[in-house]
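Please supply some protein, with C-alpha cells.
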Amino acid sequence: MSIFNSKSKENSATVFPKHGPLDKNGKEILLSVKNIDITFGKKENAVKAVQNVSFDIYKGETFSLVGESGSGKTTVGRAVIRVNPLAGGEILYKGVRISGKISRTLDREVIRNIQMVFQDPAASLNDRATVDYIISEGLYNFHLYTSKADRQQKVEKMIHEVGLLPEHLTRYPHEFSGGQRQRIGIARAMVMEPELVVADEPISALDVSIRAQVLNLMKKFQREKEITYLFIAHDLSVVRFISDRIGVIYKGKIVEIAESEELFNFPLHPYTHSLISAIPIPDPKLEKNKVLYTYDPSIHDYSQEEPELIDIGHNHFVYGSKKEIEEYRAIRDKNEPVKSITINFSGSDSMHDVQAAAPSEDEIQLPPVHDTGSFLYKLVSFFLPILGLIAAFIFKRVNYIRNYKACKKGAIAGLITLGVIILLFLLLILLAVI
C-alpha cells in the first residue's frame, strides 16, 4: 500500500519510505536541503541568518558544514531537526518534505530518525536526571522496548558501546567529566537507532586529549550502524579527518562544496582559502612565520549579475559570478594543487615568501588510533628490554609517541632491574669465594 494519497504526496506522508531518491550517479539521497532561507526577527528588525542554502547528504556519509562563528552552521542544523522554521525553501528527508507544517505522525518519525548531538555536553543534559533516565527517555517516549528488562538491556549495551560502565547509570551528569558527558549525549542519540545524526560541534568543548576518542567513537557507530552525519564544525583539521564531503558557509551562504581531499587540494573560493590558511601547523617555527590569508568580500563584483553555486566538475561546487566561475574552472582544469599557506622566511628586512601546499592529512590529523601507550608495551619491554628499545625506535620513527614512551620506560626499567640482579649475583659469587 502506498504511503501517499493522491492529494499531496509531501503533506500526507505518515511514514518515510525505506529508501530515499537516487542522484544521477546512483547514490541514495538521505537529506536534501533546497534553497532554504532562515530569518530571525520581524519587519525592520528582521535578520536573514541563512540565504538560499542548498546541499544533499548521501546515505552513510559524513557531510561537514564549516565556517566561522556566526556563519549560520548551527542555524541550518537546527532547521534540519525542525527547531528553526524556514522563511523559504524546503528540507526533504528521503524525498518527503519535513519542513513547515507536517502531520503529528510524521513529526514523530522525524524525531525518531534524526537525532542531534549538542555542542555543550553540560548544558544539553538534565542535571536532575540519572544517566539511566537520560538515555532511556527516547525509549520511553517512543515505546521502543518490550519490557523493563529489554529497556535495561538496550541501555546497558549502549553505555558499554560508548565506553562507560553499567554502574554509571545511577549517577548524575555533574559527576562526570566533559568527555564522559559527551559520551552520554552520544549514547542518548544512538539508542534511538537513528539514520541521520546532526553533530553540532560535538568536540569543541572537549580537551584536545579526548577529542580523538569521541571522533573515533562516532566513526565506530557509522561503520557498525550505517549512520549518516551532518557534522557542524569550525576546525578544518578535524573536519578533514572525519568527512566525506565538506560544505563551506559564509554569512549564511554556501560558497563551496566538494569532497574532503578535493577541497583541501583545490580550495578555489577565497574564503575557503582563508580558512585553510588558518589551520595551525605542527612545526612551531613554520607556524610563527606563517602569513595568514585574510578574506576580503569586496574583491567580488556582483553588481552586474547574481552569483550562483555552480558545479565546475569533479563534483566540486563553487559560488561566484560567471567570470569567477570560469576562472575557478580554469584553475581546476590545470589539475595542480592550489597552495594555500604562505611561509615568510625573512632572515632580515627582506621578504621571501614561499608557497606551501595545504597540510597533508599526516600533518594535521589527530593522534593515530592505536597510539595508546598501553601498559602492555611497558610490561613486554620490561621483561624483554632489548626488544622494547627496538620497538621504541620504530614507534618514534612512525610518530606513535605514546607507544614510544611506554616502550622506552619499560625497557629502561627492565635494564636497570637486570643490572641490579646481575650486580647482586656477582656480589653473592664474590662472598662465596671469600
Notes: The domain at 29-251 is CATH 3.40.50.300 (Rossmann fold). The chain has three domains: 29-251, 262-364, 375-433. The mean pLDDT is 85. The longest strand covers residues 29-40.
